[in-house]
Automatic annotation (TrEMBL):
It comes from Bacillus pacificus. This is BppU family phage baseplate upper protein. Residues 1-143 form the BppU N-terminal domain. It holds the Pfam family BppU_N. InterPro entries: BppU_N (IPR018913), Pectin_lyas_fold (IPR012334), Pectin_lyase_fold/virulence (IPR011050). Coiled coil: none annotated.
Length: 726
């Protein structure tokens, strides 16, 4: 027996005469309802109108369908409807279900809601649940048929029809969006409405409309992808034998696609590869260049400079490169005048571009692998690999760059001026994750502003690994950079060895890092307003110093553990007259000294240094005479710090700088000291006379409550005598 539904377009409560529609996960075309649409108690005329079923399922996916409608008596508002399987794909009660009446894609009316309950089946409790729109489903099938015809015949008319279908699909999607914008669920504030504002990925939106808008954008992107027509470069004469120049064939393929509004250029894989010899290939808007890990062979002795490029005189949009392997030989002196043998070929140069995708690309022995300049917006990449390339990744004047899975190997390349990642002027909102780099004589990542008036901002790198490098990252000319989750291994034979650096007032924040192999942890050059902040790190040992700078505004180390504070010249904060940091702070750091090469391994020169809640753990085989030394031009402060281990005096008594100790603890005797000369406040049981060794001026408080004074001062002597009860 069919369920009978009487649905009022006025949505009045007294007209609610409906049963609950119940189905089970996996039901296919077996649930049919008998529907009467009324206006008050008067049948609603459906003549000349289209009727759609719309439903928000328990998991926030949706259904919009007209295929299940069987009209019985349109004039009396009577029809039957068979639900598609996706209606019952998610267990639970529907968030909303109703019918909409449309004419010429305009909504005339919607019915009151009714309830749909989906029961679990006995085996899986679910089938894959997804949004289902019957019109789009049919259009996709039509598009696939047309695309197959085009691939077989390269016929222009079919391509034109496909484009028309895509535009129709987009129009329908926009119509759906407009209708959904008009839906209000109890003021969008009910529990179900709140649940609907959370998408299938768990992302919460302020309003349901915001969530729908995002889904609409995603759907539109999918429709645009469906509109791409694929042309094979072989159709236009490409040989793909690795010898014959395929430049013109590829350019002709692109030009033909551009005539019909864009599409996909297919460069199939061959063992021999695709040779590019005669010139540069210009890629306009709405073009996808796709290979199958196809090798693009460029001989650097030829005249070609850029393999693919865009026309910088106009904005080029919606371009995608995918599945290509660029290969050149390192057999030519580089044209930029640096005098090294290498390739003079740039693989992809994008100028004046928007909405760019770069996927599964490999660059081998190029001068520039990927270069984006002049103007760029909305750049996304996934899986880029570089080998033997001097400037693997260069970006300037670009806003919104996102990328992941970046690999670059520059091992053995001698230039100190080139970097794995080079971010230049007017670049903003860049986020790159999953970065692995091998080899780099200089900084692996350089973020700078060559113009002097447009420093990069909001530059973020995460999940970074650098092996056999000379230095990790420098922020220059007021650039603002944040990096996290970093593993660095320094090659001490290289010349740089500056791990985190600021030049000319760059700002750098680093969190969750480990450093091994040596190097200078913090470096500053001409940065009186520069800032470097390091949070939560481990450093095994240093080959130079903790901080070296001719000028740096502020440096902060928070929760950094030094496993062995050592260097060839001692771990001096500075080692040159005239070098300074305005303020250097250590918070909750742990500094272990096992094998220092000087008698005062922590030195403070022309800087203001503060230590808060830090631990100094001295584990040398022989007693260390002094741990710290503060020069006359320096200031140092130790507050609530702990010292322990094998040393004689913490601060050298002849230090002529300004030194302050505030409630620091010597774990060797559990004393508190507040002066550099190790005058202490001690606690114990019984009299200290003949028992406690301390400096003259030290204090002792007796805590056992026995007969005698509870307070003593060491007034004379060098050993354990000279304690006077007070």
């Amino acid at each position: 027996m069919k369920t009978k539904l009487i649905l009022d377009v006025n949505k009045t409560q007294h007209a609610q005469l409906n049963s609950i529609v119940t189905g089970r996960v996996g039901d296919k075309a077996s649930n049919t309802v008998d529907v009467y649409v009324v206006d008050g108690f008067i049948p609603y005329n459906l003549t000349g109108s289209d009727v759609y079923f719309e439903c928000a399922k328990p998991d926030n996916t949706s259904v919009r369908d007209k295929n299940g409608i069987t009209m019985i008596d349109a004039a009396k508002g009577h029809f039957e409807y068979t639900f598609p399987a996706q209606t019952f794909a998610s267990v639970g009660k529907s968030k909303q279900a109703y019918f909409t009446v449309e004419k010429n894609s305009t909504v005339k009316a919607t019915t009151q809601d009714f309830i749909i309950v989906s029961l679990p089946d006995a085996l899986t409790n679910r089938i894959p649940s997804k949004t289902y729109i019957s019109q789009l489903d049919q259009l996709i099938r039509d598009l696939e048929a047309i695309q197959l015809d085009v691939l077989n015949s390269v016929a222009y008319q079919e391509a034109h029809d496909a484009k028309t279908f895509a535009e129709q699909a987009k129009s329908i999607s926009e119509s759906v969006q407009e209708q959904l914008n008009q839906i209000v669920i109890n003021g969008d504030s009910s529990v179900e409405a709140a649940q609907a504002r959370v998408d299938e990925n768990g992302e919460s939106f302020n309003t349901l409309k915001e969530r729908i808008d995002k889904g609409f954008i995603n759907n539109t992107s999918q429709i645009e992808i469906l509109s791409n027509i694929a042309y094979n470069v072989r159709t236009y004469g490409a040989k793909l034998d690795g010898v014959t120049d395929d430049t013109i064939s590829i350019q002709n393929t692109i030009n033909e696609l551009s005539k019909i509004g864009g599409g996909k250029v297919l460069i199939p894989f061959t063992n021999e590869g695709c040779a590019i010899k005669s010139g540069e290939i210009v890629v306009p808007s709405n073009i996808i260049v796709e290979g199958q890990n196809t090798k693009i062979i460029i001989n650097s002795v030829n005249t070609v400079k850029n393999v693919f490029k865009t026309d910088k005189t106009k904005v080029n949009k919606n371009i995608n490169f995918k599945g290509l392997h660029f290969y050149s030989k390192n057999d030519k002196t580089r044209s930029n005048g640096r005098g090294q043998l290498g390739s003079n070929v740039n693989a992809i140069v994008l100028s004046n571009v928007e909405n760019i995708k770069l996927e599964k690309l490999t660059f081998e022995n190029c001068e520039f692998g990927l270069k984006i300049d002049t103007y760029g917006k909305q750049i996304h990449f996934d899986n880029l690999s570089f080998n033997g390339t001097y400037q693997p990744f260069y970006v300037s004047n670009t806003d919104v760059i996102t990328g992941r899975t970046f690999y670059s190997d520059r091992l053995g390349m001698n230039s100190g001026f080139d970097h794995h990642i080079y971010i230049n002027s007017a670049t903003t909102n860049l986020t790159i994750s999953d970065i692995k780099m091998i080899g780099s004589n200089s900084y692996a990542i350089d973020v700078k502003d060559d113009t002097g008036n447009a420093p990069p901002k909001n530059i973020i790198f995460t999940d970074i690994v650098l092996n056999s490098g000379g230095g990790l990252i420098v922020s220059e000319q007021k650039a603002d950079v944040t990096i996290s989750n970093v593993i660095v291994t320094i090659d001490k034979t290289l010349t740089s060895k500056n791990i985190f650096a600021s030049i000319e007032d760059g700002k750098l924040k680093v969190s969750n890092f480990s450093v091994s192999g040596g190097g200078t942890l913090i470096s500053g050059l001409n940065s009186p307003n520069g800032i470097i902040i390091l949070i939560n790190g481990i450093v095994d040992r240093l080959s130079t110093r903790v901080v070296v700078a001719n000028s740096l505004g502020y440096a902060k180390l928070d929760k950094v553990t030094f496993l062995d504070v050592i260097s060839e010249e001692g771990v001096a904060i500075f080692n040159h007259t005239g070098c300074w940091v305005t303020l250097l702070e250590f918070y909750d750091c742990h500094l272990t000294l096992i094998s220092p090469k000087t008698n005062d391994p922590i030195s403070h020169r022309a800087n203001n240094t503060r230590y808060f809640n830090c631990t100094f753990d001295i584990k040398t085989q022989t007693p260390l005479p002094y741990v710290s030394y503060t020069y006359e031009q320096a200031r140092s402060m130790f507050k609530n710090c702990i010292v322990s281990g094998n040393f004689t005096t913490f601060e050298w008594v002849n230090s002529n700088g300004n030194v302050v100790f505030l409630d620091c603890v010597d774990e060797r005797d559990n004393s508190i000291f507040n002066t550099k000369s190790a005058i202490k406040k001690l606690y114990g049981v019984g009299s200290p006379e003949g028992v406690i060794t301390a400096k003259v001026g030290s204090e002792y408080i007796r805590s056992d409550g026995s007969t005698g004074s509870t307070y003593y001062i060491k007034e004379s002597g060098t050993g354990s005598t000279g304690w006077i009860a007070k």
